[in-house]
Amino acid sequence: MSKLLTTPLTTDVIESLNCGDKVLLNGIIYTGRDAAHKRLYEIIKKGEKLPFNLEGQIIYYVGPCPAKPGTVIGSAGPTTSGRMDPYTPILLQHGLKGMIGKGLRSREVVEAIVEYKAVYFAAIGGAGALLADSIKEAEVLAFPDLGPEAIYKLRVENFPVVVVIDSKGNDLYKIGRERFKKIELA
Amino acid sequence: MGIREVHVDEIIPVVERLCIESNIKLPKDVKDNLCQALEEEESPLGKEVLKDIIKNTEIAERKNIPICQDTGFAVVFLKVGQDVHVVGGSLNDAINEGVRCGYTNGYLRKSMVVDPFLSRKNTNDNTPAIIHTEIVPGDKINIIFAPKGGGSENMSALRMLKPADGVEGIKRFVLETVDRAGSNPCPPIIVGVGVGGTIEIATLIAKKSLLRPLGQHHPQPEIANLERELLKEVNKLGIGPQGFGGLVTALGVNIETYPTHIACLPVAINIQCHVARHLEVEI
Lengths: 186, 283
Prior knowledge:
The complex is a heterodimer of chains A (186) and B (283). With 186 residues, chain A is of the alpha/beta class. Chain A is 25% helix and 26% strand. In chain A, strands 2-3-4-5-7 form a 5-stranded mixed barrel. The termini of chain A are far apart. With 283 residues, chain B is of the alpha/beta class. Chain B is 39% helix and 22% strand. In chain B, α1 (8-24) packs across α4 (91-105) and α2 (28-40) packs antiparallel against α3. The radius of gyration of chain B is 19 Å and the shape is globular. The two termini of chain B are 17 Å apart. Classes of the chains: A alpha/beta (186), B alpha/beta (283).
């Protein structure tokens, strides 16, 4: 059974999540990948105003395909999260509560997830057509010059994700593997 | 045998169609293997992931949209018959024009940046294509279009082993590379291994090995056995679908070899995600 969650996320809700939980997200989420993260980071460093309030929000690491006429968005699956690691702790410090991506995170990010009580979700990498079905509205919010890397504001309904790193720092990528690992590399 | 003329105007729409169709529909061998993986996987979460991955390919086909939003580097393998005369312009320009049309008219994502570390400005049409050309006997042009995602490309690796490292060294390098990649390249993956040649031949044959259908092993029995053995070993790593833990980390290991220097044993590993797209046409 999946847990139903609505954004923005509160600390209480985040603390109730455990790694391995299946979640269906509802509400507003924001997209951002490499180039947008670099800009958000620079805006914070300069003390300027961010294009949206990070408090309680979720950033989805995605660069969607262009929408065909009559559709909301093109295929829109997650990109590899690790590339956003250098920019992530400062965003968490400024109120960001959730991230959706795929793949491993750095030690610094896991520590920041625990410190600021946040959560890292994975969506299925390579399932862009399926995930686009759960995106009901999309508008470019900032950095339109970045093309597929612009920040979009998305309204999602029952967007399927899995909790990979919970607010206690438990990591499904480690725990899940241990259950099935049959060899040790020297 | 006479020279056959092929006009670039004939090539451009073919490449355009290859871009669009390869991104929407997976080859049958990959789809069949994903269904087989679903049978073999024991992790409940892993099974659900595989079901969603299969469902995703069905949605993409039904809606005529890309399977994955990363519609990739536009990788093109060309075999040009030596009795072909391309007229009306340059062959490479025609390929790039086809890519430009395909990625624009097909609503595919444009992922190429002009320069790798200065402006990183998007070229906005997914050109330039990555073109590998071979001159072969005959009067045909064979085009394989194989879009390649960035996430799995990033997990690829090259190592110049010592000849003394031998087959054990190759196995260790493959296992270490898949282990390190973990959940990043969207498992279940296909592992392309290129052994021999020079540094650039090793990487090229690693990528070419990914074009071979799953389950079709190398014609040389020792290498075919190594492919089977490595697949078993890789699947003992426990990474599983999407890295959530499970039995199916890889769908296949394909190895290609090339003669090399007495001092050398280059090994390249090209990791391919489960969206293993490629489509072939002969003109």
